[in-house]
Amino acid sequence: MGWLWAIIVGFVLGLIAKAVIPGKQHSPLWLTTIFGILGAIAGNAIARAAGVAETRGIDWTRHLFQLVAAIIIVFLGDMAYTATLGKRKQRI
């Protein structure tokens, strides 16, 4: 069940990150989901390091770290995907 939640959270975080980043992103939905999963993992690690991973009620700070990490990873990942895709199209 943990993997299912990771995919769902990654999907949602990836979509929110895509919506926040200005301009058009060219990465496919499956890659955006993977970037969102990586953002959730990175955000959890940062929250744990900051000492706010486990709080009473809803962990808003942890979710904020996850979202910011997902935005950064989606942005950088999309840039890498576009650069790779652009080079491939130039060779053809």
Write the layout of secondary structure elements.
Elements: H1 2-20, H2 29-50, H3 60-91
Helix pairs in contact: 1-2, 1-3, 2-3
Secondary structure class reads mainly alpha
User: What general outline do the C-alpha atoms trace?
Assistant: elongated
Q: Could you tell me how far the N terminus lies from the C terminus, measured between alpha carbons in angstroms?
A: 43 Å
Helix run count: 3
Overall average pLDDT:
86
| Order of secondary-structure elements | HHH
Radius of gyration: 15 Å
The fraction of residues assigned to DSSP E strands is under 5%
Q: Helical amount among residues, as a percent range?
A: over 70%
Give me the count of strands: 0
Low confidence ranges:
none
Question: Tell me about the biggest sheet?
Answer: none
Give an overview of the whole structure.
The chain has three helices and no strands. It is 79% helix and 0% strand. It is mainly α. It starts with a helix and ends with a helix. It is elongated, with a radius of gyration of 15 Å.
Summarize the structure.
The chain has 92 residues and is mainly α. The chain is 79% helix and 0% strand. The mean pLDDT is 86.
Entry keywords:
mainly alpha; elongated; 92 residues
